[in-house]
Amino acid sequence: MANKAIIAKKEEVVNEIAERVKNANSAILFDYRGLTDAEITDLRRKLREQDASYKVYKNTLTKRAFDKLSINLDDCLRGPSAIAISDDEIAPIKVLAEFAKDHPALELKGGIVDGKETSLEELNKLATVPSRDGLLTMFAAGLMEHVKNVAICLDLHMQDLEKEEK
């Protein structure tokens, strides 16, 4: 029988994983095999810049944590897996997808985005969504176009009124 201290330590890790995943807006599983230490350090730095963390847990402990949360990502827990956790839904996906373009050894598996199980296909779609700042910029530009058109229309109307008065 396993030592009670070891079982308690494992249960502590399971609870840590479950708590972090439950409180995060995204938890992305990926395969890191084949990356050098320098590449992993670079990936950690890029994730940290986006307020995301990266950690490697044993798959059996991660599965237990997911089971606690009623999450079924068993297919993603085959082979070595790391998990990127963030309060931002899109940022870690974009960082991992961009990093994978230059480092084919990194392979996205799946994850949890906004509390929902997310497949690799969905992650790839989300990776193409512009950042929050980019979306806000596009929204503001769209609003400015309408304001500009109204201003031009009012200016033309004023010019017509001035012509009529003369």
Beta-strand segment tally: 5
Q: So, CATH architecture of the largest domain? A: 2-Layer Sandwich
Strand content: 15-25%
- The CATH homologous superfamily of the largest domain: Ribosomal protein L10, N-terminal RNA-binding domain
The number of distinct helices, counting runs of at least 4 residues, comes to 6
Main sheet: which strands, in order across?
2-3-1-4-5
Structural class: alpha+beta
Average pLDDT across residues?
Answer: 88
Instruction: Give the count of structural domains.
Output: 2
3D structure, described in words:
- The chain has 166 residues and is of the alpha+beta class.
- It is 58% helix and 16% strand.
- The chain contains six helices and five strands, in the order H-E-H-E-H-E-H-E-E-H-H.
- It has helices at 4-23, 37-49, 59-68, 91-102, 120-127, 132-165, and strands spanning 26-31, 52-56, 82-86, 107-113, 116-118.
- It starts with a helix and ends with a helix.
